Amino acid sequence: MTQQRLDFTSASPDAVKAMYALEAAIAKLGLEHSLLELIRLRASQINGCAFCVDMHTSDARKAGESERRLYAVAVWRETPFFTPRERAVLAWTEALTLLPQNHAGDEDYAALEAELSPAEMVNVTLAIGSINTWNRLAVGFRKMPQ
Question: Are 63 and 37 spatial neighbours (Cβ–Cβ below 8 Å)?
Fold first, then answer.
């Protein structure tokens, strides 16, 4: 098992405080809590962030998400368990998390545009950016699940 490299929360409390302020702002943007947890879980899976996968599956369960859907997030394209809105957001999450590979392709953008308002598109993109930053902190400094 990997050892934690650095406790980033105590090393730079102001940086972490800024991230929490961003999360508080995202929570007030009107996106469904369940949708935010799908974003957080899928990006964390892609980025290999054990801490965040553990935390967001737990948070999603507490918010009422089914085990079946949680297990299927990694293979969401192959299941009927997600709405068109959720599918568009999961595709956009993958596109932006894997940005160097696909450059946020037109097909993913068109699917997002068909399901979300312009403001929601920006808000979802901000949420994706935020979890990717958390993943980089947790993976980079090897934060371990509790």
Answer: yes
Residue 73 DSSP class: G
| pTM attached to this predicted model | 0.96
Pairwise CA distance, residues 93 & 15, whole Å = 24
- Tens of pLDDT along the chain (146 residues)? 678 999 999 999 999 999 999 999 999 999 999 999 999 999 999 999 999 999 999 999 999 999 999 999 999 999 999 999 999 999 999 999 999 998 999 999 999 999 999 999 999 999 999 999 999 999 999 999 98
